[in-house]
Amino acid sequence: MQVSTSLIPVILCGGTGTRLWPLSRASYPKQYWALNGNSKETLLQQTQQRLKGIQGLQDPLLICHEEHRFIVAEQMRQIDIDPCAILLEPVGRNTAPAIAVAALHATAEGNDPLLLVLAADHVIRDSKEFRRIIEIGRSHAEEGRLVTFGIIPTSPETGYGYIEAKEPLEIANPRGVSITKFIEKPDLKSAKEFLKDKCFTWNSGIFLFKASSIISELENYAPEILNSCQAALEGDLSDLDFLRLESEAFTNCPNLAIDVAVMEKTMLGTVLPLQAGWSDVGSWSALWETSDKDEKGNVLIGRVIAHESKNSYLRSEHRLIVGLGVEDLVIVETDDAVLIANKHQTQSVKSIVNQLERDGSPEAKAHRKIYRPWGHYTGVVEGNRWQVKRIEVNPGASLSLQMHHHRAEHWVVVKGTALIEKDGKKQLLCENQSTYIPLGCKHRLTNPGKMPVELIEIQSGSYLGEDDIIRFIDSYQRLSL
Question: Given 3.40.190.10, 3.40.50.300, 3.30.1540.10, 3.90.550.10, which CATH number is that of 7-279?
């Protein structure tokens, strides 16, 4: 079969996933975690991998916050994917602006591909069925229709938006049907009525359309969004493998979902039914529902022992968890926080995160383990004027040439070999060797080898914040102004 139009996945990587706290946080949201069953691939990686076999598939275009750019690039590298572009948003502006910049970028050279818009944080258990329905949607999209995929409801869910089709939808013989309207999250009574009516589906947020079609409808219904995004692209800045959208133009863009900006108004909307084990993983209870369970209904991940327990989700990232005689609980352990919740109340986790943010608690937004383009570091212990970190530097990677005004550092190499530069002088440090970085010293660490370098860093001084870094040379364009 000859395919007339290429297809570019547009993967939207925004969102903080606060309902999956304490695992998902603003610095490392749920889309970058391996959450689906026993797979070692993250939700972002699975979003890309399940597309294999779609006809005319091109390299993906990813849109993420600039804070997460190196996480996105590294996770794509791990699965041997070279994105056609990674667009960096200075601020989150919802799905309509993200789709607008994707469409404008995709057509910049005169091409008009199909765009398959996907969220990076969804679970779809039946990838084969998903691809089959996408292929059915292709013919509608090539005719200029704006195709979305409605999830066949399995319960009267009040946490999802709904789509009403003009005719009943059939899974046995799926076909595109024109959309009557979109419905925001309904009350329980309405949701129960929708469950009985085959015209209603959950709104998945997955779309398929030609780039020119969505641009045309944005011109008709949301010209301010299109104009702002065009200005943001015209003023973009190339940053290594990324395209950084011009901040002022994009920040001034209206903050609207594509449903509100276009889909609720257009006459070109088409919905296809999808029944492929979809979940937006919007809570710990939703993750429990989509995960493989033992004979007693438990999901057990990490160092976990469950004795006489049932229908619970127990996840350990570090320490041993023992569940004894528990039922309908969610227990999640991380390096700095433990969540214990009734499985039926996990939608309220977001309010706990809001409380932590109001209190200024660091656990609200970041883990002890912080990712950087060169590797990562983990806070181990800290005192009033000192702290200890464990640092891991990737092969061939290098920290910036930097200095500190308020702290000195001791480095002890515990694995691998590190090349140290101090005030222009270089030396190699092997395992169990150390060096002292005095306050005000220009210094840099490079991993010249093929294995990660691990070291212990001991900081001491009057101020230990991460903003006490003056960068002079940096491989990742993070120079201080």
Answer: 3.90.550.10
